[in-house]
Amino acid sequence: MAVETRRTIKLTPEPLTAEAYAPFGSIVDAGRLQLHCSDGQYTARLMKLEPAVPRVVHVNRHFDHSQLFVPITGDPMLLVVAPGHVSGEKFDPETLRCFRADGTQAFTFNLGTWHIAPRALDGRAAQVINVQGSRYMEHTELINFEELTGVALEVAL
Q1: 1 occurs within a structural domain
Q2: What is the pTM of this model?
Q3: What pLDDT sits at residue 40?
Q4: What's 68-136 look like in SS3?
Q5: Is the C or the N end of the chain the one with fewer CB within 10 Å?
Q6: pLDDT of res. 102
């Protein structure tokens, strides 16, 4: 039985900085980065980002790997994330955060971080290289938090 939407959380994207983003992943610099994949192997694919929309109602997370995104077109993008320490049935939409990446920063999602795929901003055709575990579909939890909690997220674009 679906829960009626009772409330909308409104967020304005904050700049993607290493300090603010640390609970969810890391900003990757020119140094080395250790990724984790417990099942399968890593794959890389070119990904054209969907445009950002103001309303977000679902998130997912991966239990078997951290995920890396490397921008290739230099276009800004939106990241929506939440800490991974809470189970899907206890998900709290109040923990959602959104960040605006400037299009030059490579970044990761930590193992278990709730997220949506990055979204293109400003009508641009942003593209990234997405590095993730080959068996991600077997190890992904997807929730519609609006149906679960009655709370939706509206992002100021």
Answers
A1: no
A2: 0.89
A3: 73
A4: EEEECCCCCEEEEEECCCCCHHHCCHHHCEEEEECCCCEEEECCCCEECCCEECCCCCCEEEEEEECCH
A5: N
A6: 96
